[in-house]
Amino acid sequence: MTWAKRREKLKASAGGRALLGAASLAYGAGVMARRGLYASGVLSRSKVKAKVVCIGNLTTGGTGKTPAVLLAAETLRKRGHEVAIISRGYGRQAARKEVSVLLDGRQSDWRECGDEPWMIHQSLQGQGIPVLVCPDRAKAGELAVEMYGSKVLILDDGFQHLPLHRDLDVVLVNARNPFGGRRLLPLGDLREPLSALRRAGMVVITHADRVTAAELTRLREDIEQLHPGVLVVESAHKADHLLDVQTEAKLPLTTLEKKAVVALSGIGDPLSFEMNLEALGITVAQSWRYPDHHPYSSRELQSIEDLRGGLPVVTTHKDFVRLPADWREKLKGEVYVLGIKLELLKGRNAFIDTLETLAGARRK
Are strands 202-206 and 231-244 parallel, antiparallel or unpaired? Predict the structure, then answer.
């Protein structure tokens, strides 16, 4: 039984809710104590010789950080800035203190760096943006500055990583579930109390197209109350292309229009992925959902193959890199990856101007 299912089972009883509530109180006390130690200087923060833009969130999973990281990095790179991406590398199998570097022309297994950094690297092919992976983000940042002359570092999912100084915190808020039930883990989905939002220099509302105008207005009012005057940008995750992984051909989104497919995902917000498919005129006939960062087994793929009825399988970049080596033998029919981009609906110029101002002078 997954943790999510165990938690829901506990929530179903008064005793279980009380247990989760007590755990949340203990967790919150620990979070606040840690924040206090950094705020008072008892615990020090490392500073690298580059500007640091952190992209993170207050809740666990599902806000769409990776497309936001890509958008920030590509925006700066297109404007002539030397940029690198720094990531912890969740689930990586490399030595804990080792820095893994992903860059154009280098080959590496996703298990050595984690699925999300690998996906970011694949999406940035040909742009000369290094992705450095290490739990010690300061160490990775120093290496980026020393080896690649990076002037701006994009810190992936680092809002709670207080040991590294940052110049701008960009916090993503999912419009469909903005504050994790307003309860701390494990009763709710908040990583920190809502007061932490005051550290943000910018808030990006994701999936703004998935809620009503009234809900969006209320969310903006909530954000304004929590952090008066903070810059708020609205965005949506939009389908960008289909990748036929059998042939490695990049195809138009109309390829599967009016067809039925199997949706395969192990991400924080599977519903958003499936809704993107349906918005393209694709019928999701089967939905296979696994926990976030799930490493797929050959047996699981064989089960999908046995039950898919010849339908195409559509998955995400993040999931595709976690398929086992023999995936071609198990999934014999059509297999596609849906490419996603973050589209800024409101506040695009402010988003770009904020990044440009922070980055400073461009390279010659």
Answer: parallel
